[in-house]
Amino acid sequence: MPTVGRRLLLAPSLLSADFSDLAGAIRAAEAGGADALHLDVMDGHFVPNITFGPALVQAVRMRTRLPLDVHLMIEHPAQYAEAFAKAGGTTLVFHVESSDDADETVRAIRATGVRVGAAIRPDTAFDRVEPLLDRLDQVLVMSVRPGFSGQKFIPDVLPKVVAARKALDASGSSADVSVDGGITTETATLAAESGATFFVCGNSVFNKDPVSDNLKSLRRAVDEGSRRAVR
Ligand code: DX5
Ligand code: ZN
Predict the structure, then answer these.
(1) What is the pLDDT of residues 219-231, one digit of tens each?
(2) Catalytic position from the list 40, 43, 137, 176
(3) Is 180 designated active site?
């Protein structure tokens, strides 16, 4: 489905929230009109950082009915698909660069009954994810090197957002194209203009108060971008 008239989804990333008050962050995101929550799982192997596992996803699940977008920055996503699905993930997004075979990972996630997303790092070509498109609910184009929040958006990835949206539209798929990393009001507009429909926002939502104002500004920014989108 083309992006025209489609609700663009804002997904605050809890990685930028105060870990000692995640319940407060979840409430603030909900009250501000977030469409989903993004949870960054890192294993210290696929990326040089360690965050959390299924137990925390489950704790978040107990606090909200929002869709949970679980971004698996781990070497063995197929192996952990069931655990993250059971924990309450709505979409499990794996990296095509991880050690597990991509087709097998799609099957493993699908078998759990949840939605499937595939992510590519900024230096990975769109070709790597293209063969999977007809089986995906989401394509995640990373706009920073995975591992940390608060980095600067890499504009060179935008052609991949355009390519993903075009390919999905051509095949009649309504899968989301999401962008993750360095999303601000400026870069959100650029990404929406390129055809992104799902926006992961960490620092731009949680590093200043109030969260609801930040989400409102981001909402305006993505709506502006989608109006300008080349169709
Ligand atoms: C980075 C993570 C992102 C990160 C985004 O590896 O995948 O989800 O939390 O944070 P910001 O929006 O601050 O770049
Ligand atoms: Zn992420």
Answers:
(1) 999 999 999 985 5
(2) 40
(3) yes
Confidence category of residue 6, pLDDT binned at 50, 70, 90: confident
Q: At 142, give phi and psi (nearest 5°).
A: -70, 135
Please name the residues in contact with 172: beta carbons below 8 A apart, sequence gap of 6 or more: none
What is the 3-state secondary structure of the chain? CCCCCCCCEEEEEHHHCCHHHHHHHHHHHHHCCCCCEEEEEEECCCCCCECCCHHHHHHHHHHCCCCEEEEEECCCHHHHHHHHHHCCCCEEEEECCCCCCHHHHHHHHHHCCCEEEEEECCCCCHHHCHHHHHHCCEEEEECCCCCCCCCCCCHHHHHHHHHHHHHHHHCCCCCEEEEECCCCHHHHHHHHHCCCCEEEECHHHHCCCCHHHHHHHHHHHHHHHHHHCCC
| Residues flanking ion ligand 2, Cβ below 5 Å | 40, 71, 180
Task: Please indicate whether residue 12, judged by its CB atom, sits closer than 6 Å to ligand 1.
Answer: no
The tens digit of pLDDT for each residue in 156-172 reads: 999 999 999 999 999 99
Sign, CA dihedral 91-93-99-101, equals positive
Q: Which tokens go with 196?
A: 């992104």
Cβ neighbours of residue 55 under 8 Å, at least 6 residues apart? 87
Asked if 169 is an active-site residue, the reply is: no
